[in-house]
């Protein structure tokens, strides 16, 4: 507000305006940012709950904006999805992280296959080039399809018809893993899982948060138990995210979850971090 005693509605309007201006500005700046190489990827390890060894890493994109500093994906992925820029941006993330995964593998050939997880937005799912782009990226990097896991949110697949599932099926037939991200937050029918070409359920962070928190409230524990037993009976692996404490890790291991990710193990970081974790595993 301009006047000293300006009313709060003006202030709220001004804030809303400022946010809209920023959104507008960020949206307009996206294409040039991609061309100028302002995006970068942080990697967060996925570990085996059994022994804590590294199973793979999830690629998480960031934008190093010249004025606003480093922006997290929640600030710009929705904008990129809105304008369609998510398609070339997503392709860049895939290419860069697959190349990085191949690089790790070459240096740690003894450490077994290292997996790379890449998030796919709903618009990428609808894009006709998804399968051919993915095949192309894998071939050029020399990475076997089995080392790639594409993460799709549960909500993106709710009510998905066969046309939408076809490219995912093709990728799954090639050996690419498909993970259902944020699992448990949507309304998907568990029986529906049989229809989906997924091989991994990635339990939403909210389940992790309720572990060891309300000892009296065992509902989430029971739900996780049920999900794990169903998943395993369908030969699906269960990954948990957002593990922040050793107690959560212990409980989720006890409940039979397979792999985990979270600050307790490592924050998302530069590729070197994964490299040193793999070195540590090897000794
Ligand atoms: P997501 O796929 O569910 O990724 C997990 C998010 O949880 C990441 O946030 C990660 O940094 C955060 N996280 C990891 N461990 C912990 C923990 O122990 N505690 C807590 N509180 N949080 C943890 P981030 O990096 O801000 O990414 C947010 C979302 O942006 C991702 O959620 C994903 O949906 C989206 N995203 C990130 N990269 C890409 C991308 O390349 N393409 C697309 N389409 N979406 C992306
Ligand atoms: Ca994810
Ligand atoms: Ca998730
Ligand atoms: Ca999420």
UniProtKB/TrEMBL annotation:
Organism taxonomic ancestry: Bacteria, Bacillati, Actinomycetota, Actinomycetes, Kitasatosporales
Native source organism of the sequence: Streptomyces agglomeratus
Protein name, as recorded: Diguanylate phosphodiesterase
Coiled-coil regions listed in the entry: none
Span of domain EAL: 23-282
């Amino acid at each position: 507000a301009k006047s000293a005693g300006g009313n709060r509605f003006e202030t709220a309007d001004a804030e809303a305006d400022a946010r809209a201006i920023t959104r507008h500005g960020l949206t307009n700046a996206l294409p040039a940012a991609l061309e100028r190489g302002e995006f970068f990827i942080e990697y967060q390890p996925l570990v085996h709950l059994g022994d804590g060894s590294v199973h793979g890493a999830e690629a998480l994109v960031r934008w190093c904006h010249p004025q606003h500093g480093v922006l997290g994906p929640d600030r710009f992925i929705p904008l990129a999805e809105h304008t369609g820029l998510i398609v070339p941006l997503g392709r860049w993330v895939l290419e860069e992280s697959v190349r990085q995964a191949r690089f790790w593998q070459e240096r740690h050939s003894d450490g077994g296959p290292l997996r790379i997880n890449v998030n796919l937005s709903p618009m990428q799912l609808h894009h006709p080039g998804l399968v051919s782009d993915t095949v192309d990226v894998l071939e050029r990097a020399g990475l076997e399809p089995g080392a790639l896991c594409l993460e799709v949110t549960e909500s993106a697949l709710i009510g998905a018809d066969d046309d939408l599932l076809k490219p995912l099926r093709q990728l799954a037939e090639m050996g690419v893993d498909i993970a259902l991200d944020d699992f448990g937050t949507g309304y998907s029918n568990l029986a529906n899982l049989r229809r989906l070409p997924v091989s991994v359920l990635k339990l939403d962070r909210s389940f992790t948060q309720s572990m060891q928190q309300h000892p009296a409230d065992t509902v989430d524990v029971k739900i996780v138990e049920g999900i794990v037993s169903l998943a395993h009976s369908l030969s699906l692996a269960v990954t948990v995210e957002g593990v922040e404490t050793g107690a959560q890790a212990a409980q989720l291991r006890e409940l039979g979850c397979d792999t985990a990710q979270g600050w307790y193990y490592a924050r998302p970081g530069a590729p070197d971090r994964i490299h040193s974790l793999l070195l540590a595993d090897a000794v």
